[in-house]
Fold:
Amino acid sequence: MQTHTIGCDPEVFLVDANDNFVSAIDRIGGTKEFPRPIDTEGCAVQEDNVAVEYNTPPVKTVEEFIHYNRKVLAYLAEHVAEQGLKLKIVPSAQFSKQELDDPRALEFGCEPDFCAWKGGSMNPRPECSNKALRSAGGHIHFGGIGDMDPLLLIKAADLFIGVGMMQYDKDEDRRKLYGKPGAFRYKPYGVEYRTASNAWLTSDETIHYVWKQQERAVEFVKSGRAAELLVDDGELAQKIQDCLLNNDMAIFEELKGEFNL
Structure:
């Protein structure tokens, strides 16, 4: 069993019977400050702008990780079905003006995140001319990382999770706003990796894939190879960032072959 823990706080969207995106405001309950618990094990839900966000407890096994993600998704699916709605797991969505009419649909998280590739400096606030666009993250929380360098861990996560997930996540719109290379936040328990979208929630296979890749990222750091290869001005660092920033599938194929992603 691994010594560190993994949790997550992904976001998903709602759609009606005609597959039109519907705001989650006043349909789920819970807020960033006060998530609504759905059990006594650490699972909770909340409204985040027009999306649904949920939290899972920190775990040490892939079986637990899959279990809790599936548990909350099943709960949410049943909850919104009573309102004639369904869950939609996509990294970005376009909402009608009507669904964005509530002032809360224009509120975005004000807590900044940071860039591991720039020494942990603060990322600029995302701006988008398309006011109808919303995006959904699939943030991964590393806890109990001990003396591991959190910036190095995030860089390794970029390689193994961020780049690796490009074979499953073909969405380019979210990357224009969020999910920039090396995006993270420090947490009391460790560090939150913010580059990944919610695309890994679509199946047990992809949830398992993310679990495997986080294990590889941690091992890459512990082995010393991350410190050797992931230097900020190095060739590999530039390839990883270019791949993620530009959705560059040629670089993805190169890195996939080199690192067996």
In short: The chain has a mean pLDDT of 95.
